[in-house]
Amino acid sequence: MEVFRYSQARSVEAALRAGSAGTFIAGGTTLVDLMKLNVLQPQSVVDINGLPLDRVETLPNGGLRIGALVRNSDLANHEAVKKNYTVLSEALLSGASPQLRNMATTGGNLLQKTRCYYFRDVNYPCNKRQPGSGCAALDGFNRIHAVLGGSEHCVATHPSDMAVAMMALEATVHTNGPKGERAIALDEFYLVPGSTPNRENVLAPGELITQVTLPALASGARSVYLKLRDRQQYEFALASSALVLNVSGGRIERARVAFGGVGTKPWRSREAEKALEGQQASPEVFRRAADAALADAKPLKYNAFKIELAKRALVRTLEQTTQAA
Amino acid sequence: MDQTKKPLPDPQDSTADNNEKPNGKPEQEREPVFGRFSRRSFLAQLGAAGVAATASPLAHAVATESEEKEAATGVPGAVPVTLNVNGREYNVRLEPRVTLLDALRDHLQLFGTKKGCDHGQCGACTVHVNGRRVNSCLSFAVMHQGDKITTIEGLAQNGDLHPVQQAFLEHDGFQCGYCTPGQIMSASALLHEPIGPEDDDVRRAMSGNICRCGAYTNIVAAVQQARKSTTV
User: Fold this and answer.
1) Rounded Cα–Cα distance for residues A104 and A81 (Å)
2) A97 — contact with chain B (CB < 8 Å)?
3) Span A52-325: which CATH code?
4) How far is A323 from chain B (nearest CA, A)?
5) Strand partners, A46
6) How far is CA A130 from the centre of its chain?
């Protein structure tokens, strides 16, 4: 690992001053890993664990405010999350290991780096790691790669489960940076790779995630997360489905659908939502929504199975949430 | 086999005498000694002999000079770090890039915590930070000043094994033993975590600790016994 300057920030203001020339560290589970591999080589690391951003609070409007430093395990087991945002608790508990969940933070989880083998190995070309060097995954072993949102420059999947659930919950990311505070809809936070896969989100250099807010769900909403993978535990998704659904008298009033494991970013599907809303719940409607969600999918040599897998994941979550309460 | 409460002494494990040792004992005095050599001092001498046999006189002179410089000024970029491990304060100088795992093993001579994958995938390095289990390989030591760190060496209290340690002995929850400190640190933390009562719940909760010998059946049995024998 390369040497770096280390500093601790005791306030958001101090973090922003120091962060303009460095990288923030919170749980460290992604950063330290990738620094050991020389994939990331920050010259300056700013420790933000001392910032007062570790609380989960219920908002007056019934929503939830989650500090950027709230650990994944604490968020998953928080009473309000378990009760009102089941999909988020399930997604968090399906990710990583208990040790890692004790370390990883809300802000850091949103910024997790891809598990693409070629991104993690500096001996291979990778446009995300080294712009312009090429993509070894396109003609490589691409079983774990994306079928949605890819480009000829990058097909790496976003690895987070938490972010997929937050996408279905229509979360908002709150940041503070050189240009002040701003609130960004999570749906507009991530970027598809296009010709600049090194740019994964809209954060400016030195901009810090301070919190994530979730809107209150309509009463009667049911939510679920289903993750399909090679192992039952401690493995990244091949395909996952996050669903938030309101059903009344068998009619789907409102649907929010997101997928993990298949997209270059946590993948919200407005196509599936449109195919579901206003319809009577039925196997045909579910299948039509799944087909709509994956209509633009582009398989690579080894990952075509993900298209059907993602469809079945959505159908299964729809079945689960529409069964008689 | 009839199991007694007191286990046989384990030459790899300094757990039992941890609380009887005063501060500042160097590693050689903590490790069991076999004749003139401990296993570790023997390996260290073997390594040093290998270097001496192959190094050129010039290289040796350079090394000596830099060693003298290091002794006077410390490692370049190193900063003073105070770590509280197993109830004891350690003052060391560390580069910021030294992980908590490497600090424990290479600087505090606490070799109970194991390095497996060094990337947060195997769990061999599991320790408790403020009572919660974490992968010590994925955290910089300098970030843990003020934290209360517990390693396998600090789990036994007043010479009595932790219930999880006792259960691993009684259920033979290991084969080669390399993953065992991490398994035990994970299991002792999960006693305080909100997990269900079934064996499958234990399997899920222990999924961050890999055992390549495949002692999982006995590990699950040991964890379940420890959960039943402790009221948390």
Assistant:
1) 17
2) yes
3) 3.30.465.10
4) 25
5) A7, A24
6) 23
pLDDT band at A202 (very low <50, low <70, confident <90, very high): very high
Closest chain B C-alpha to A212 CA, distance in angstroms: 24
Contact residues, A window 6-35, toward B, CB-based 8 Å cutoff:
6, 25, 28-29, 32-33, 35
Cβ <8 Å between A99 and B143: no
Q: Are B138 and A25 an interchain contact pair (Cβ–Cβ within 8 Å)?
A: no
Q: What is the layout of strands, in order, in the sheet containing B132-135?
A: B88-94, B79-85, B148-150, B126-129, B132-135
Q: How crowded is residue A309: how many other Cβ atoms within 10 Å of its Cβ?
A: 21
| Residue A23, amino acid | T
Which chain A residues contact residue B118 at CB under 8 A? 36
Give B147-176 as a DSSP string.
-EEE-GGGTSBTTBPPHHHHHHHHHT--SS
> Tokens standing for A94?
């399906």
The closest of A193, A187, A199 to A269, measured between CA atoms, is: A187
**Site from A1, A4, A24, A32 to mutate, B interface, most B CB atoms within 10 angstroms:** A32
> Residue A309 pLDDT more than 80?
yes
**Residue B186 contacts A where some CB pair is shorter than 8 Å:** yes
Cβ proximity of A243 and A87 under 8 Å: yes
For CATH 3.30.43.10, the residue range(s) in chain A are 5-49
Q: Give pLDDT, residue B41.
A: 57
pLDDT for res B90:
98
Interface confidence, given as ipTM, is 0.96
Judge whether A202 and A222 are in contact, CB under 8 Å.
no
A100 touches chain B (CB under 8 A): yes
Residues of chain A with CATH 3.30.465.10: 52-325
pTM for this predicted structure: 0.88
What's residue B38's pLDDT? 59
Give the closest-approach CA distance of A313 to chain B in angstroms.
Answer: 21
Report domain A5-49's class: alpha beta
Q: What is the mean pLDDT of residues A224-235?
A: 96
Name chain A contacts of B132, Cβ cutoff 8 Å.
Answer: 73, 102
pLDDT digit string, tens, across residues B170-184: 999 999 999 999 999
Sequence letter at residue B95: E
Q: Are A107 and A203 in contact (CB under 8 A)?
A: no
Tell me the average pLDDT across A151-174: 98
Q: Which residues of A touch B201 (CB under 8 A)?
A: none
Mean pLDDT by 10 residues, chain B (232 residues): 42 41 43 51 53 44 44 72 98 97 98 98 98 98 98 96 97 97 98 96 98 97 95 56
Report domain B163-229's class.
mainly alpha
